[in-house]
Design goal:
42% of the residues lie in helices and 15% in strands. It has 565 residues and is α+β, with helices and mostly antiparallel strands. Strands 1, 2, 3, 4, 5, 6 and 7 form a 7-stranded mixed β-sheet that branches. Strand 8 and strand 9 form a beta hairpin. The longest helix is centred in the first third of the chain and has 26 residues, at 163-188. The chain is globular, with a radius of gyration of 26 Å.
Length: 565
């Protein structure tokens, strides 16, 4: 996976509400990891993801540049800190209880000796501290799911956090740790058991503080959240070098956006199933799924780089994986793609796909060697694809795809991190590749799903956004987040919105005079679509109407003809 520049952090203005509660959980990982102790993984989010009310209040704070430079304003989303703790070996493995049971088994049920396992041996334990600004994260959870799924109490007004809100933040915190673990696996390629509520101890410590209390190290009440428990691996290897830690940090920021992360996560599941639980059926199935995902998503990435729209690709997608592999890859990047051959594709067909079919359709139990082969051959297939993309003619045509699949390290290992590649990486006119292809892929997936169950977008419950395009007067757009579609709307003068039109016009006017005036922006209107809003066009994929949702590598998102989907 590629490490992409995210702009100079020195230009950012970090917005923070000093009264906002910060909820911090402490999670013991299922097995120790080798990230150095006290390593911090901060997450900063662009303020445009939050409603206008937050931005309006925030831009009045001391030191904030104002709405004209709103593109520079960021907020803290989370902060993760890694801790390492020594614990008793016998207790951590449950050997203490086993030892006592063995004595009873040898000497009879009346045995009452107090002997136990020696307790002078230590085991490594990794604990991750997760700090979450409550209002920011609860707001994002409401936007991500629906207004009814997450308690909507505004914690900025001084109200205490409810149990439901703590529960929602607990789930967010687990998700943050899982992303870090997934990134750790991507960089280290070892089996990693993802954190889940089912594998946690029964009680999880947490604290609620504000920023001042944290800075002053004020003593606060340590609280307990009820969860569940498990026993896991205990040995941690030596600390990773700084370069590997930086790579993990970069990868963790891209987990959610990058469709290619799925094949790596399936590879992780195959390893865990085999090497943590000895489950060869699951391991082979996950390895086969990883191979299919990397084949399909790499092909989609090539089509994306060919400037094909997701609508066009979805309408012309071959239903047969075998046909896609033998036809679509060979004509683009060359090489042997014959299922019956002796190369990487032929070995994948025999040692992965065929064994998987026997498992799924016949209940076959693969041997450990077969499961090991499935994982190894899938990785060979990925290497083969990377080698093909790195060849001179292919690299010139599919530079972005090569970078997204193998990153700087992969190209450098092949001696192909050329000056031309570096120039394209540093081109300020290039869109962010991971995010752009990620949105393209999501759009394609929705369009393919329409073949089985067409989407039905509705104004009711949709988000309402004011959109500014350079040289144009602001327009209003409704976006149905459940379907990923948007539509232009007309708002009669007598309809009241969650924000005054004068304020929206003022923000857009100031932005149009700033240094970033050529960049389109949008503002979320609190309360969403209200009664009286009228549709003024057909529903289309959201990327056609909304900034920050772009999917086209050449930036032609808004030039596609309007029309109903």
């Amino acid at each position: 996976m590629v490490s992409e520049p995210e702009g100079s952090e020195g230009d950012r203005v970090l917005l923070a509400d000093p009264d906002e509660p910060i909820v911090t959980f402490f999670f013991k990982l299922p097995e120790p990891i080798s990230i150095p102790e006290y390593t911090v993984f901060p997450e900063q989010l662009h303020a445009s993801i939050l409603p206008l009310g937050w931005l309006e209040k925030g831009t009045e704070m001391e030191g904030v540049p104002g709405r004209r430079d709103m593109t520079k304003i960021w907020v803290t989303g989370s902060s993760l800190i890694v801790h390492h703790v020594k614990v008793g070996l016998a207790a951590s493995l449950g050997l203490d209880a086993v030892f006592k049971a063995a004595l009873v088994g040898i000497n009879g049920p009346d045995y009452r000796d107090s002997a136990s396992m020696p307790d002078d041996l230590d085991a490594d334990c990794t604990v991750v501290e997760v700090a979450l600004p409550a209002w920011v994260n609860l707001t994002l959870e409401q936007a991500r799911w629906s207004r009814n799924d997450v308690p909507s109490t505004d914690v900025r007004d001084g109200n205490g956090l409810s149990g439901e809100q703590i529960g929602a933040l607990f789930n967010v915190a687990i998700g943050k740790v899982r992303s870090l673990q997934m990134a750790y696996h991507i960089i280290e390629n070892g089996p990693v058991t993802l954190l889940a509520e089912e594998v946690l101890p029964p009680l999880i410590p947490y604290v609620v503080r504000n920023s001042a209390q944290i800075e002053e190290k004020e003593a606060v009440e340590l609280r307990l959240y009820e969860a569940r428990r498990s026993f896991n691996a205990i040995t941690r290897q030596r600390d990773l070098p700084d370069g590997r830690v930086e790579a993990i940090a970069s990868a963790s920021r891209q987990i959610g956006d990058n469709p290619l992360a799925a094949y790596l996560d399936l590879d992780r599941e195959a390893l865990v199933a085999l090497r943590r639980y000895g489950n060869t059926r699951v391991s082979v199935t996950m390895a086969a799924a990883s191979a299919e995902v990397v084949l399909d998503r790499t092909l989609l990435m090539l089509l994306w780089e060919e400037r094909r729209t997701p609508e066009d690709v979805a309408a012309n997608w071959r239903d047969s994986l075998k046909r896609r592999v033998e036809k679509d890859f060979s004509e683009r990047i060359g090489g042997s793609w014959d299922h019956s051959g002796t190369g990487p594709v032929g070995r994948w067909a025999r040692k992965v796909s065929n064994v998987r079919n026997r498992v799924v359709h016949g209940g076959y139990l693969p041997s450990r060697d077969e499961a090991d082969d499935a994982i190894a051959v899938t990785r060979e297939l990925v290497t083969f694809i990377c080698d093909r993309l790195a060849s001179e003619g292919n690299l010139n045509k599919y530079t972005r795809s090569a970078m997204l699949l193998m990153g700087n390290d992969g190209l450098e290992k092949r001696g192909r991190h050329t000056n031309a590649v570096k120039r394209l990486q540093g081109d300020p006119n290039e869109p962010p590749w991971t995010k752009t292809f990620g949105l393209w892929f999501k759009t394609f997936s929705r369009l393919r799903s329409d073949l089985l169950a067409p989407r039905v977008s509705r104004l009711e419950g949709s988000d309402l956004l004011a959109v500014y395009m350079p040289g144009e007067w602001p327009t209003y757009v409704a976006c149905d987040t459940s379907t990923g579609q948007a539509v232009k709307v007309h708002i009669p003068d007598d309809v009241e919105l969650g924000a005054s039109r004068e304020l929206v016009d003022q923000i857009f006017s100031e932005h149009s005079q700033g240094e970033n005036r050529q960049n389109p922006i949008s503002i979320s209107i609190s309360g969403g679509v209200v009664d009286g809003v009228q549709i003024a066009g057909g529903w289309v994929e959201e990327y056609r109407l909304l900034p920050l949702r772009g999917v086209m590598v050449d930036g032609s998102n808004f030039t596609v003809e309007d029309g109903a989907c």
